[in-house]
């Protein structure tokens, strides 16, 4: 399970058997959410609070190039 980064108590990662569209998982002690990368869209949420979702969205936007490049490297696409 490749971890991309951690920030403000949120963990941003991929599962090792991911599929398109490009997306990232975000988790903390409350739960986990899944966001598509381009365009940034919340796909699923299982427990993250609205303030954590907003923070996750901001961090994904800020790190979009990093996330995209790590996806390409890890999944050879």
What does this molecule look like?
The protein is of the alpha+beta class. The protein has one domain (3-75). Helices cover 32% and strands 35% of the residues. The protein has a five-stranded antiparallel sheet, with helices on one face. Strand 3 (23-28) and strand 4 (31-36) form a beta hairpin. It is globular, with a radius of gyration of 11 Å.
Structural class: alpha+beta
Could you describe the largest sheet, including whether it forms a barrel? 5 strands, antiparallel
**Count of β-strands:** 5
Helix content: 25-40%
Distance between the termini: 17 Å
Helix-strand topology string: EEEEEHH
Number of helices: 2
Mean pLDDT: 94
Q: Rounded to an integer, what's the Rg over CA atoms?
A: 11 Å
- How many domains? The number is 1
Overall outline = globular
Uncertain stretches = none
Please report which band the strand proportion falls in: under 5%, 5-15%, 15-25%, 25-35%, 35-45% or over 45%. Answer: 35-45%
**What is the topology, as strand order, of the major beta sheet?**
1-2-3-4-5
Features:
2 helices, alpha+beta, 77 residues, 32% helix
Topology:
Layout: E1 3-7, E2 10-13, E3 23-28, E4 31-36, E5 41-46, H1 50-62, H2 64-75
């Amino acid at each position: 399970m490749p971890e991309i980064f951690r920030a403000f108590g949120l963990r941003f990662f991929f599962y090792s058997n991911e599929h398109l569209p490009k997306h990232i998982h975000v988790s903390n002690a409350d739960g986990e959410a899944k966001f598509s990368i381009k365009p940034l869209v919340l796909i699923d949420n299982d427990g993250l609070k609205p303030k954590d979702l907003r923070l996750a969205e901001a961090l994904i936007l800020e790190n979009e190039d990093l996330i995209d490049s790590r996806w390409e490297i890890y999944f050879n696409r």
